[in-house]
Amino acid sequence: MLDAAPPVTPQPESERPNLGTRLMRRKPVEQLVAEGGQGDGGSLRRSLTMWQLTMISIGATLGTGIFVVLGEATPLAGPAVAISFVIAGLTALFSALSYAELAGSIPVSGSSYSYSYATMGEVIAWICGWCLVLEYGVSVAAVAVGWGEYLNELLDGTIGVTIPASVSAPLGEGGFINLPALIVILLAMVFLMGGAKESARVNTIMVVIKIATLVLFCVIGFMGIKAGNYAPLAPLGVTGISAAAATLFFSYIGFDAASTAGEEAKNPKKDLPRAIMLSLLIVTVLYCLVALVAVGAMPWQDFEGTEAALAQIMKDVTGHSFWGVVLAAGAVVAIASVVFAVLYGQTRILFAMSRDGLVPKVFAKVDERTGTPKANVVIVSLFCGVLAAFIPLGELANATSIGTLFAFALVNVAVVILRYKRPDMPRTFRVALFPVTPILGFAFCAYMMFSLPSKTWVYFGGWMIAGLVIYFFYGMRRSSLATAEK
User: Fold this and answer.
1) Is Acetylation given among the entry's keywords (predicted)?
2) Rounded to two decimals, what is the model's pTM?
């Protein structure tokens, strides 16, 4: 029988950590890994294979940029929009290498939040986690809004009706509620509550459908390419390419989703790095191919104000509405899978933050039968659903890019810190050309952040202030490390 734990004697006021020490307290890597999978009332189940992890990352990434954001970025860069995709992809690649190393070393659910906690301290971890809440939560809502546009295209092509604006747009944008956006989020919630393994199967089916749809677009769209549409290549210059790349970075949000599944992977140390790199490669190749075909088949000036641009191109090239309907159906599935996978990532990040005491414990409560944090899934889904249904997102959607870039920058810093502080720690993947690669990753993120408009920075600043207020009045006093010091 274990001996009874000795009574805890409160520290004298003079011996308690000062504010600076409390802000920079770190959670050791070994403690993070030891706590992995454990929630309030149960534990997450290790059931995901490398291919399922890859499909989660592709599911969270592939779709938004090419089906929705392409129409916004092309008027900024012209035919050089494919170069903008490459720049955004390179920015993501440098950070992906850092993610791969940390995911193999610290295989837990918190993604960059947990990596920051182990290397830079609690307040930086909170800031990173708060950025991830913005990245995942708001992007779920923004993507759900885009889903409604392609759903209307599909309904118009099949039964000749569209959803009235009064129930397909939020207040301030010509309607009262965006019902399609709410419905797709609630559907994702239902599937997520079934368990990680079951959710991964549904996600894999949707990913296969959307990859097939984009390949079909490339085959048909290739027949409509006109060489003249590529000239001039960069009508708005380097500035336009950079601005488009910053906008398109939104389409790479989600490649890190595999790292949020660290506590549900069967072999996380090996499979997480592979899934992150493989998913980014597949997504970047598809993005660039589709962008090249799209601007070749439609003059870049015609993209401005065009909703469901890819479906329109399919109609124009073939002369038949059937192929536009097929593309719209694929887009409906594709964007739904983004909502599904990103919502999954959001719940797992909040799970990790809750276990650390930085957000309420309800987010770490695990259902014993399904092995999923059901209450977490319901709360997050309802929040994102209300956001998508009633709130005009506007510039807040762009703020997800800056929040993501900030989190990615911290991951590059975390790799450097952990290499120098824990050089002998086992690593299943190592960043090549260290420390040049993470430094370049940080520099690319900073460059992309400063390419975003000033209004985006204002929204981001407001989000950060709100987050710090919550931390100082709630998280700092209730974190598990804080309670251990009492």
Assistant:
1) no
2) 0.84
